[in-house]
Amino acid sequence: MARLIDAGPGCPTPTPHRAQSAAEARGLVYDDAVRAETDHLYELVDDFITPMEWPAVAPLVAAINRLKKEKNAVVLAHNYMTPDIFRLVGDFRGDSLQLAREAANVSEDVIVQAGVHFMAETSKILAPEKTVLIPDTRAGCSLAASITGADVRLIKEKYPDYPVVTYVNTSADVKAECDITCTSSNAVQVVEAVAKEWNTDTVILVPDQYLAKNVAAMTDIRIMTWPGACEVHELFNADDVSQLRDAHPGVVILAHPECPPDVLEAADYAGSTAALANYVKDKSPNKVVLLTECSMSDNVAAENPGVNFVRPCNLCPHMKRITLENIYDCLTDMKHEVEIEEDVRVRAKAALDAMMALPKMETPLDFEVGMAPLDVEYV
Ligand code: 13P
Ligand code: SF4
Question: Which of 25, 30, 136, 143 is the 20 to 30 Å CA partner of 197?
């Protein structure tokens, strides 16, 4: 487990160093007005932000919350945001499917995507009349970077009879070439629905090879895939799971389905970030470990004070590009607006709409655990 930063039970992910000057450089000070607006919020993050750091954080939080009202904006915060963003300025929080559904229904004029670029594109595709801002345009994703629209066109030429499902972790260009999107909350439902619609026993699921293998283990549909991987989840392996069990007897191990199949084979439960959060809330295990991005444990721990968290930690460098400072800056200057060519947007929307039109699942998908890994063919 050398690659993992094991912060130990109860230790939160280290939050980025907070320079007092970051707020001050923006003319923001910790004055009485800020105290009045933020004092009651401190308890939401007191496990992550020390009393010494709070005067550097509170002015940014107060300013962002004021700017949201002034600009008629909302912040959509993914589960991997640090707790200051997730708990103090996020208006809607959740996994990528929940955030996409929120984006489609937002009534405010401006959406700030506290997440990565493909999530901001998804919001823009679904809510084209809104101004969608991404606080740092470099917040990418290794899965989204692994495949292009041209790649999908070649796949389609080679396999014209098979539908192509894309995980939402892809660019608008890729979505525009695919038949339907899926997320880890609904991947099996999507694969089976599209196979039925196309009257085929084979579906191509891109770009995450591990998600594809984990889906293949749960359906009779033959899955073909693409050699993409999440740079965060591919680092976990079955040895990590057994070392965690040895080091923390009785620990319940939950994994995201972007992990390789041998991790799901050894885990106790697997699902999307929303499914993992629901599991902890519903089952209240005594001791738990989430094999996913670091901040997820911090956010779930904050909502489940009775549960002990062991925190082996893989940071997503892209998610971590989003900070209170750049959320403040993008709202102040209304900068980093996401734009998508209309023809691409319309075709990408068709793939997202096809997913959204499927019956809404009552709860996110539970992935099978304990199954021997299955190999799938690559396109
Ligand atoms: P979720 O859809 O489970 O939120 O996952 C998104 C993601 O990027 C995981 O790495
Ligand atoms: Fe992409 Fe992985 Fe980061 Fe999620 S955790 S945004 S899949 S690189």
Answer: 143
Tell how far the Cα of 15 is from the centroid of ligand 2, in angstroms: 19
Cβ contact 94:349 at 8 Å = no
Which residue, by CA, sits nearest to atom 1 of ligand 2?
Answer: 141
DSSP 158-173: H-TTS-EEEESSS-HH
Element (H, E) at 73: strand 73-78
pLDDT at 25 over 80: yes
Question: How far apart are the CA of 318 and the centre of ligand 2, in A?
Answer: 7
Token duo for residue 3: 């690659």
Tell me what pLDDT residue 373 has: 87
Answer yes or no: is 40 within a domain: yes
Ligand nearest the Cα atom of residue 140: 2
| pTM (two decimals) | 0.93
Q: Provide the CA 341 distance to its chain's centre, in angstroms.
A: 24
Point out the ligand nearest to the CA of residue 272.
Answer: 1
Residue nearest to atom 8 of ligand 2 (CA): 141
Domain that holds residue 123: 18-141+319-333
In this structure, the answer to whether residues 191 and 81 fall within a common structural domain is no
| Pairwise CA distance, residues 375 & 4, whole Å | 26
Q: Report the separation in Å between the CA atom of 272 and the middle of ligand 1, taken as the mean of its atom positions.
A: 6
Residue 288 DSSP symbol: E
Q: From atom 2 of ligand 2, which residue's Cα is the shortest distance away? A: 230
pLDDT in tens, 36-93: 999 999 999 999 899 999 999 999 999 999 999 999 999 999 999 999 999 999 999 9
CA 29 to chain centre: 32
Q: The domain that contains 103 carries what CATH number?
A: 3.40.50.10800
For residues 126 and 163, membership in a common domain is answered with no
Looking at 85-240, which runs of residues are DSSP E strands? 92-94, 110-114, 131-133, 164-167, 180-182, 202-206, 222-225
> Could you tell me if the CB of 13 is within 6 A of ligand 1?
no
- Ligand minimally distant from the alpha carbon of residue 299: 1
Residue 92 region, left (φ>0) first, then alpha (ψ -120 to 50), else beta?
Answer: beta
CA gap 77, 256 in Å, rounded:
18
